Amino acid sequence: NAGVTQTPKFRVLKTGQSMTLLCAQDMNHEYMYWYRQDPGMGLRLIHYSVGEGTTAKGEVPDGYNVSRLKKQNFLLGLESAAPSQTSVYFCASTKDRDRIGGGYTFGSGTRLTVV
Amino acid sequence: QKEVEQDPGPLSVPEGAIVSLNCTYSNSAFQYFMWYRQYSRKGPELLMYTYSSGNKEDGRFTAQVDKSSKYISLFIRDSQPSDSATYLCATSYSSASKIIFGSGTRLSIRP
To answer: Is the Cβ of A10 closer than 8 Å to some Cβ of chain B?
Structure first.
């Protein structure tokens, strides 16, 4: 049981380059999320999805786009990377609206550096 | 003002000690309180959660909420080196609301 798998694990980008982060879950979860984690800032929600074909903005959506074409996959895109987007990105999923008891299942993160 | 505040640490204690980790929050409407544990180079995982005020115990871990002072605590008894991790507190208005995470406290248990 793989849980939530994020690819790639590490990436270095030059300013202005684009990339896509892939999140895949095999738990048949409806809800999926993208967070970024920065020192002293905690986890901040970028975008989320409540089901296949849906997306919504979170707390810090600027500079990112997402797509959820298949239930098991949630893609995070950076169209023109900036140094301020250097961070660790985490994908998470939950089964349904009860996000408390079941908890979020997180991936192991993607470490992105933009130079 | 952040909605959830945590001392970033690091906190270093000897093996076997009782550890106290704390958070404060700003909004009295929060009803659910969670603790996540995050090992180095891994994603967070849910440790335990409580609803409203009171205590909840799970093995060596006890979560405590004091809504009157907007204070959340996690106690670890008989701490082990394997407890070394970053601990994030989190809150939510309801079971279906977004979860707001603190920035985490880094804990190190010395053998």
So the answer is: no
Distance CA A18, CA A80 (A): 5
> pLDDT (tens digit, 0 to 9) for every residue of chain B, 111 residues total?
788 999 888 999 999 999 999 999 999 999 999 999 999 999 999 999 998 888 899 999 999 999 999 999 999 999 999 999 999 999 998 877 888 999 999 999 999
**What distance in Å separates the CA atoms of residue A50 and residue A46, rounded to the nearest whole number?**
14
Tell me the DSSP string of chain A. ---EEEE-SEEEE-TT--EEEEEEESS--SEEEEEEEETTTEEEEEEEESSTT--EE-SS-TTEEEE-SSTTEEEEEESS--GGG-EEEEEEEESSS-TTTS-PEE---EEEEE-
| Adjacency order of strands within the sheet including B19-25 | B4-6, B19-25, B71-76, B61-66, B54-58
Burial of residue B110 (number of CB atoms within 10 Å: 0-12, 13-18, 19+): exposed
- Residue B10's φ and ψ, nearest 5 degrees, are -75, 150
Residue of A41, A96, A99 best to disrupt the B interface, most CBs of B under 10 A: A99
* Residue of higher predicted confidence among A1 and A46: A46
